[in-house]
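Aim 2, interim progress: modelling of the glutathione-bound target.
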Amino acid sequence: MAVEVCVKAAVGHPDTLGDCPFSQRVLLTLEEKKVSYQMKLIDVSNKPDWFLKINPEGKVPVFNGGDGKWIADSDVIVQVIEEKYPSPPLVTPPEDASVGSKIFSTFVTFLKSKDSNDGSEQALLTELQALDDHLKAHGPYINGQNVSAVDLSLAPKLYHLTVALDHFKGWKIPENLTSVHAYVKALFSRESFEKTKAAKEHVIAGWAPKVNP
Ligand SMILES: N[C@@H](CCC(=O)N[C@@H](CS)C(=O)NCC(=O)O)C(=O)O
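Predicted structure of the complex, ligand included:
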């Protein structure tokens, strides 16, 4: 049986790849390992019964390695993929595994913030500066010369950050964070990323109800 992965469809476009960073993380992992797979697009505003049967929690991504057993949660899924397809190895050493791990939550808080003095911009800047420092010492990727799991988790989140903050706040990653800029450029230009990214308009449509509820 084929490897299958359920991922989010674009908001209002059930036949188009959508804007879920956790879904893209799984697709990136499969692409980097050159595993062929069948992608099933899930309209999360109208979940089909068969999907709720395989994953009652109702979240994407969900992965089936060909044995008919469906697995949820991108953390678990990428581990399963790594065990089943060890080449090329994408394991991130434990000391680097949490680099950049607060970027997504601080980005979301800043994106939703209506108060420019609440410290949310500074909190995000602190996390981006820490990433820049790490990359300057150890880059170009988080674990050095080669892309690894932590980069594939962070890349879709940085994509959401750049697209949504530019659109909703006219905000960009500061120019002086040169290593972050080089990192983002390297990640976004990977073939795997080009192939699995959501269109900008779908990323924006996905965030719009959260920015202006
Ligand atoms: N911790 C989960 C998060 C997955 C998640 O939040 N997926 C969102 C889309 S980005 C979802 O399925 N939302 C639909 C819903 O909750 O009904 C993972 O890493 O896979």
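The pocket of glutathione is lined by residues 8, 20, 22, 44, 58-61, 73-75 (CB under 6 Å). The radius of gyration is 17 Å.
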